[in-house]
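User: Structure please.
Assistant: Input sequence and predicted structure:
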Amino acid sequence: MKRGDSGSIIFSASDLMRFQGCRHATALDLAALGAGAGDASPGLRPAEASETAKLLQKKGDAHERAYLQDLASAGIGVHEIETKRATFASAHTMTIAALRSGAPVIYQAALAGSRWAGYADFLERVERPSELGAFSYEVIDTKLKRTPAPAHVLQLAVYSDLLADAQGLLPAQIHVVLGDGRRATLPLGDYIHYARNLRRQLESFVATPTRPEPCEACSQCTWRAHCDADWEATDSLVLVAGIRKDQRQKLEAAGVTTLADLAARETPVPSLAALTHAKLREQALLQHARRAGGPPAFKLRPPTEPEMGLARLPKPDAGDLFFDMEGDPLIEGGLEYLFGVYVEGGKPGRVRAFWAHTAEEE
């Protein structure tokens, strides 16, 4: 997101994907822009992207260039929009001209609406009449994943709506060129209304206070360190290992708002099972003692039922083997690069590793 010339906020497809994954991350983006509620700070800045995120970006760029080369090899004319040295406004003007020219494919198209803007990887001409003439365009994006993800659909829906503003016709389909080279085509009509509703929610979200909540987006989020510091500073219930969001909500409704509160709470709270409360409190007690400076500690749970859990495992034997494997999905075609076998019976046991640096070795 960024400030427009009039001072209003201009959103991108990436902002919508982020909003769907974690609204607190969006609130922090807005606060850093000086437009949010509650958490605003002049020095608020996201962390640098992780090495994994940088590697994924690099792989994504290479996949995009490979598809561009495939189009050239197939003799398909590609009109590339100059984006590196051009302003967005001039790139948008060039994109409109390319659309009107009827180019077979437009690369790095700059699309814009009243509060939304962004660069689409590829626009492909289809023979479906529009305000441009006897043809129109549909959006293609390149992604590393092997199957289309909801975030991909959201992104393409945003670009398709912006493209509709330019050509006077909503595209019928959206397309994703996947990491294995396959092309997935999806009917836009199945998703466009959900995407538009989410866009409206984001546009009206600007002044909504939030708090950090763990979610799937955390691992690659540039605000992760900020949220970690918030949880630590507030002794949040999030820190209790194994606790679920609905359990935290029930505890908070009863006035138990921190890890220390839970450690001190001996009586169960309404709507939370007594056994569940006891387990969570026991975990909180161990962690609270450690956070207060004590040594690492653990407590063995007494077996409650025979032949359950670990008791179902066969007794150790000198011939036991424990196998593990590691793979790298970012290498083209994937690579299972390490097999490891731990052999019981020795003192200590033996580990044998099988390495594969190439597909042939694999």
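The chain has a mean pLDDT of 90.
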